[in-house]
Amino acid sequence: MSIRAIGASQRLTPELILRAYALGIFPMAQDRDDPVVHWVAPTMRGVLPIDTFHVPRRLARRIRSNTFTVCCDTAFERVIRACASPRSGREETWINDAILKGFTDLHGLGFAHSVEVWRDADLVGGLYGVALGAAFFGESMFSTATDASKVALVHLIARLRLGGFRLLDIQFITDHLRQFGALEIPAPRYLDFLGDAVARPAAFPADDSAQLPAALDEVLTQSSTQMS
After folding, report:
1. DSSP reduced 3-state for 211
2. Hey, which bits of 14-98 come out as E strands?
3. Which residues constitute the domain of residue 73?
4. 3 state DSSP class of 144
5. Using CA atoms, how far apart are residues 72 and 37, in angstroms rounded to an integer?
6. Chain centroid offset of residue 211 CA
7. Domain harbouring 193, CATH code
8. Which residues contact 30 (CB under 8 A, 6 or more apart)?
């Protein structure tokens, strides 16, 4: 994994964050307690193809069983704080106070969104990211229940398809994301995709969209067909 750090800043405004993302740059801290924010431009970029996203069969069955309740933008700050919290297997995180505040401000302006996974009254998983044009930049996810973050990701894909998004940037590839069809592309190719996506219109669907159930079913059905 090659990373090119291009500078540091402590004050993150919504305008600065959006300008950076439009240029293919994103902020990270060395760890949760480090007050400095570094701007990062990977030489290889992780993306998740929205149209060919693959849902493993077991996960599709879990989603269809309605074990969890899933919604969006009802608990953004709780989601980003959960993503920033250390837990077993991931004691260090890159989300410091400056990033937490900057992205919470972005959410207030309608550019950052969260997907929340609930089991009864407990928030057990979720993810958050930034929407700019028809590009969505996935930032982080968390889970305190089996499959909860994966369920959030599948619901995100359904929303992105419904909203007309063209690019899902995941920054870096992990084994966790490879199972869904994630791939790594060189930065110049990524920037071509990015420029095209940012210039196109898209809208992140709200929970009351009547088309959401059909969009989710299409994601699950397509994955089943791909495996047959």
Report:
1. coil
2. 26-28, 37-42, 44-47, 69-72
3. 3-227
4. coil
5. 27
6. 21
7. 3.40.630.70
8. 36, 38, 94
Q: Which of 225, 219, 209 is nearest to 48 (CA)?
A: 219
As given in the structure block, the two tokens for residue 17 are 């964050």
Pairwise CA distance, residues 65 & 220, whole Å: 12
Tell me the backbone φ, ψ of residue 198, rounded to 5 degrees: -65, -30
Calpha distance 128→106 (Å, rounded):
11
Mean pLDDT of 38-44: 92
Q: How many Cβ atoms are within 10 Å of 9's Cβ, its own excluded?
A: 14
The residue type found at 135 is A
What residues are paired with 127 via a beta bridge?
115, 141
CA-to-CA separations, 213 to 20, 118, 128, 156, in angstroms, rounded: 34, 17, 20, 12
Antiparallel, parallel or unpaired: β 167-171 and 135-143: parallel
Q: Domain tally for the chain?
A: 1
- Over residues 112-156, the pLDDT tens digits come to 999 999 999 999 999 999 999 999 999 999 999 999 999 999 999
Q: Are 32 and 93 in contact (CB under 8 A)?
A: yes
